[in-house]
Amino acid sequence: MNTKILFSALILVFMSSGFVSGQENYRTLVFEGNQKFKGNDFDGASSKYMEAIKSNENDFTAHYNLGNALYKKKKYQEAQEEYSKAEKLSQTLPDKAAVLHNLGNTMMQMSEPAKAAEYYKQSLKQDPYNEATRKNYEIAKLKIKEQQRNNGNKDNNQGKSGGGEDQNKGEKGDSKDQKKDQGNGPQQSKGKDNKPNGSGQEGKLPKDLQKAILDSIDGREKRTARRILNNKSYSKPESNEKDW
């Protein structure tokens, strides 16, 4: 009987030491990945994070940081996949807000502002006072408006080529769309003081996207839009830096 107890105890010790060793290996790989990320070695960082995921695929940090490294490499589809995994594994409000924010950034890079706006909106539910997320949300809505105008112009041009009757229909449709746009246009936030959470680093919106947005907006709305665009609002994802 004593022999069985001793044998069982040895097995438990062995399993426990193996678990601790696995956790230490995971943390070491994440730490090494973070160091490479800070040195702008995004290929090296990606490799370390992928090794960490093989060691423990059910932890938020490695998936989130791998998403950041892939984003920096402009592999946006792959970054989205890792962020989505991280979002499902997030257990705190800051982690959930951060990964939803970065999913929004990824959708903007993939020219899907409607999806981006939804992610930013969800992120704000977790962190209502994050100024960077709120500004990015406004930018996404401006981009949606630009796409709607471009689609309206295409329809109008098709109507002109199809004859006078089609043109009149197109003009009526455009007029309705313009009224709808004017009612739903983005406005400056009027809430309480919105304070950024201090995590992440902000950068300006890409020049081509900024110009395209301003070119598509009515003159009376440009001042509001320019204030948003010029305020270093397009926040870029950064390593979560959980060095353990």
UniProtKB/TrEMBL annotation:
Polar residues biased stretches: 149-159
Biased composition (Basic and acidic residues): 166-182
TPR repeats by residue range: 60-93, 97-130
Source taxon at top rank: Bacteria
Region (Disordered): 143-244
Alphabetized InterPro entries for the sequence: CellSynth/LPSAsmb/PSIAsmb, TPR-like_helical_dom_sf, TPR_rpt
Keyword Ribonucleoprotein: no
UniProt entry keywords in alphabetical sequence: Repeat, Signal, TPR repeat
Cleaved signal peptide residues: 1-22
Record-given protein name: Photosystem I assembly protein Ycf3
Annotated source species: Chryseobacterium taihuense
Lineage of source species: Bacteria, Pseudomonadati, Bacteroidota, Flavobacteriia, Flavobacteriales
